[in-house]
Amino acid sequence: MKTIGFIGIGKMGLPMVQNLIKNGRKVVIFDTNTEVLKKMSSNPNCATVSNPKNVLDYTNELITMLPENSHVKSVYFGKHGLFESKNLADSLLIDCSTVQPQLALEIYNEFQKKDASTVDAPVSGGVKGAEAGSLTFMVGCDETKAKQIDPILKLMGKTIVYCGKHGHGLVAKLCNNMLLGTLMAGTSEALLLGQRLGLDPKLLTKIINISSGRNWCSELYNPVPGVQDQVPSSNGYSGGFSTKLMKKDLSLAHDASGGNVELPISSKVLEIYKEVLEMGNKAEDKDFSYVFQYLKNKKK
């Protein structure tokens, strides 16, 4: 039974690790949350270590899934980080975190000096996709490495798209999420207008979904409570993709542009999500469709 390393056992990382085990792999894991490590250590196919570097004592294949740029930098370059390992030669390090494309390039350039292969492979599908093993991976390299990468990623997902160059997986992810945030804000605004003018939101949703305004948010992830079952808006906006993470991804997209591209529409959406986070009521942890409630309660 082959062993895979995994660093970052959070909302996304935990179900990804569980799918690796379910699909016949042993795992060696690290996380700063010792309670998670303690819980996972009861599984006979899961071993834990005390720092990132030690993961590579047990395997030359490693996945990271971390929240922010700072966490990725710490794991890869910090004290007891992966760069300190003496076992980097011929290793494959796959970072599924959503961070700056430039950071992926920095990791690639530095680890190449130690004969280690690194790729950025951010995901789409959210927690539900991670639990179902149906994630989409956007991989920052060409398909020449597919024979090495595909068998690992297919244990956790269904779709793998090779984006050509290092960092381009992250470019694709940030462009997608920038559009997603914009679509959710626009869909929420349209549904709110219809509701305020006396139109039932279920009826308006039906009309939108057979018309030119149809989009993923209106069809599969409606932001109005009660319009669709089993979506966050009908469950107190719990679960799903948090407003905090949407704001983070919008910020990353704008930072990545480097001022070379004007982004007036998503700039406004970014400002809206910043204001959503200031609403209180733990808005930062609520699903990003909570922007509907922000618009609904916004004063003139």
Automatic annotation (TrEMBL):
- Name the Gene3D superfamilies on file: N-(1-d-carboxylethyl)-l-norvaline Dehydrogenase, domain 2, NAD(P)-binding Rossmann-like Domain
Q: Which residues form the active site?
A: 173
The name under which this protein is listed is: 3-hydroxyisobutyrate dehydrogenase
Q: Which organism is it from?
A: Rozella allomycis (strain CSF55)
- Which SUPFAM superfamilies does the record cross-reference, listed alphabetically? 6-phosphogluconate dehydrogenase C-terminal domain-like (SSF48179), NAD(P)-binding Rossmann-fold domains (SSF51735)
User: What positions does the domain 6-phosphogluconate dehydrogenase NADP-binding occupy?
Assistant: 3-164
Q: Which BP terms does GO give this entry? A: L-valine catabolic process
Looking at the record, the residues that make up the 3-hydroxyisobutyrate dehydrogenase-like NAD-binding domain are 167-290
EC number(s) of the enzyme? Answer: 1.1.1.31
